[in-house]
């Protein structure tokens, strides 16, 4: 297990390198991943679930599963899609358990503004702020109907057919909007110079 | 591939990356991914794009207790885990702990063995001690039995010695009788009953000039324990008690007489019945008499 004096070294490691340590039973490496990504995971859970308590449970369970399943993670792949996939699936499970749907985008934003952010790491906070600005701009560049279906799919946890039912649009239309919107988002991120997200 | 097919494929990949794929399309997607490396690469890229979406949400610090609970959960899990291969700077600590555990295990094994050995020795000593105690008790009993037997044997020996003494005395007595009876020159005198109803008699063997004589009686009735037969010598002037005797169940008795002077100096002998501790010839009944 990593010792306190290794904290500085851990901060310099990539997520994938930290995962190698986590797979070896290094709880300090997991703590580093938590400190690095828990705020985003918590924000995502708050956005999807609209309540603090279940969102906290999602955060804890996400990193617990990262700890328990670290050996199954392939370090050749990216960590963030894997981690957010775990968190998002937990949120969807919670939504299905409650048989309710998440708040609308506007309501979610309002809920989030009521939760104080206690981030103390200025460098991390600055990085996240810049990343949020870029992804928000990339989403803003999308046509509203494409942005809407992407947000309903990702943050709402809805399938394409459920989106079609909710928007009362043909399924083919929803599939096209999702396909086009995601392709444009990908190009926009490349345009803004954002590569695969890393810490 | 037609544009429509390509669009359909990209639609499947986009939905899969967003996690919004309808269950009905899942089998088609899996078949496509299994046969198309390009499709797998495209899905990976789209997933990485989707991984940016959470950053569109304002990040929020979760409560401190969430992290504390998580790390406590992990610490508990680590305590249950089998130690994993140490890396980097953790190697030293990781090496020491198993070594200490190994030493501890060896010490525990040695202590266990020593304890087991001592317990075995104690058990053996206890068993030996018990055997010795039993043996001592057996010996004590044997000694007691031996002492009893020894006492019995000693009593038997005393009785045997007494019998031997009596036999020697009897042998000496018999020898004397034989010497008197069978010696050449012995004189015999007869003692007869004073009453007609008595069948008793006596025969006295004597040497002229000797002070000893032997008298053999027969036909005398046995007396009460407080009564005895008494033998008297008389020279015509006075009578001298010369011995007391009992007869056996057959009415037989032998008496060796030792007189104050030579027996032939006396003229008469007689036998009376008297109390065992008194001698009063004047009043006693004379039942045998004879002349010398």
Question: If interface size is counted as residues with C-beta under 8 Å from the partner's C-beta, which chains form the largest one?
Answer: A-B, 79 and 52 residues
Q: What is the approximate shape of chain B?
A: rod-shaped
Number of contiguous helices of chain B? 5
Q: Main beta sheet of chain B, described?
A: 8 strands, antiparallel
How much strand of chain A? under 5%
Strand order of the largest sheet of chain B: 5-4-7-8-1-2-3-6
Give structural notes.
The complex is a heterodimer of chains A (199) and B (292). By secondary structure, chain A is mainly alpha-helical. Chain A is built from ten helices and no strands. The longest helix of chain A is centred in the N-terminal third of the chain and has 23 residues, at 27-49. Mean pLDDT of chain B is 83; it is low at 87-93. In chain B, 52% of the residues lie in helices and 19% in strands. Chain B is built from five helices and eight strands. Chain B is rod-shaped and about 185 Å long. With 292 residues, chain B is an alpha+beta fold. Classes of the chains: A mainly alpha (199), B alpha+beta (292). Chains A and B meet through α3, α4, α5, α6 and α7 of A and α1, α3 and α4 of B.
Question: Outline of this structure?
Answer:
Chain A has 199 residues and is mostly helical.
Write the layout of secondary structure elements.
The complex is a heterodimer of chains A (199) and B (292).
Chain A: H1 7-12, H2 15-23, H3 27-49, H4 52-68, H5 79-98, H6 105-113, H7 122-140, H8 144-154, H9 160-167, H10 171-191
Helix pairs in contact in A: 2-3, 3-4, 3-5, 3-6, 4-5, 7-10, 8-10, 9-10
Chain B: H1 3-18, H2 23-35, H3 37-50, H4 64-80, H5 90-182, E1 187-193, E2 201-206, E3 212-218, E4 227-234, E5 239-245, E6 253-258, E7 268-275, E8 285-291
Antiparallel strand pairs in B: 1-2, 1-8, 2-3, 3-6, 4-5, 4-7, 7-8
Helix pairs in contact in B: 1-2, 1-3, 2-3
């Amino acid at each position: 297990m990593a010792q306190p004096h290794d904290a500085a070294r851990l901060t310099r490691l990539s997520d994938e390198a930290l995962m190698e340590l986590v797979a070896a039973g290094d709880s300090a490496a997991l703590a580093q991943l938590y400190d690095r990504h828990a705020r985003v995971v918590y924000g995502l859970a708050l956005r999807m679930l609209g309540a603090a308590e279940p969102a906290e449970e999602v955060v804890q369970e996400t990193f617990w599963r990262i700890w328990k399943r670290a050996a199954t993670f392939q370090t050749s792949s990216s960590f963030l899609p894997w981690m957010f996939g775990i968190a998002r699936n937990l949120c969807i499970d919670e939504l299905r358990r409650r048989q309710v749907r998440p708040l609308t985008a506007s309501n979610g934003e309002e809920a989030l503004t009521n939760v104080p952010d206690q981030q103390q790491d200025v460098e991390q906070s600055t990085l996240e702020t810049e990343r949020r600005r870029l992804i928000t701009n990339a989403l803003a560049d999308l046509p509203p109907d494409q942005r809407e279906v992407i947000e309903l799919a990702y943050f709402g946890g809805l399938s394409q057919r459920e989106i079609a039912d909710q928007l009362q649009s043909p399924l083919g239309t929803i599939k096209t909007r999702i396909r086009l919107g995601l392709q444009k988002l990908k190009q926009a991120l490349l345009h803004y110079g954002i590569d695969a997200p890393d810490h | 591939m037609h544009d429509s097919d390509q669009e359909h494929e990209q639609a499947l990949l986009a939905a899969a990356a967003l996690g919004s794929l309808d269950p009905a399309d899942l089998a088609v997607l899996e078949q496509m991914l299994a046969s198309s490396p390009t499709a797998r690469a495209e899905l990976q890229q789209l997933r990485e794009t989707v991984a940016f979406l959470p950053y569109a949400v304002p990040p929020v610090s979760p409560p401190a207790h969430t992290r504390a609970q998580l790390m406590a959960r992990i610490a508990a899990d680590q305590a249950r885990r089998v130690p994993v291969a140490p890396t980097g700077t953790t190697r030293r600590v990781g090496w020491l702990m198993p070594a200490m555990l190994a030493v501890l295990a060896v010490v525990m094994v040695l202590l266990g063995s020593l304890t087991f050995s001592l317990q075995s020795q104690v058990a053996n000593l206890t068993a030996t001690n018990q055997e010795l105690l039993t043996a001592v008790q057996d010996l004590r009993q044997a000694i007691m039995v031996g002492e009893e037997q020894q006492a019995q044997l000693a009593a038997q020996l005393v009785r045997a010695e007494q019998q031997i003494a009596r036999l020697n005395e009897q042998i000496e007595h018999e020898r004397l009788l034989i010497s008197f009876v069978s010696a050449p020159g012995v004189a015999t005198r007869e003692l007869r009953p004073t009453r007609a109803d008595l069948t008793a008699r006596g025969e006295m063997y004597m040497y002229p000039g000797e002070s000893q004589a032997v008298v053999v009686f027969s036909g005398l009735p046995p007396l009460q324990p407080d009564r005895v037969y008494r033998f008297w010598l008389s020279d015509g002037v006075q009578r001298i008690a010369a011995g007391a005797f009992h007869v056996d169940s057959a009415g037989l008795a032998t008496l060796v007489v030792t007189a104050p002077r030579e027996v032939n100096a006396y003229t008469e002998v007689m036998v009376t019945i008297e109390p065992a501790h008194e001698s009063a010839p004047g009043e006693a009944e004379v039942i045998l008499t004879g002349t010398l």
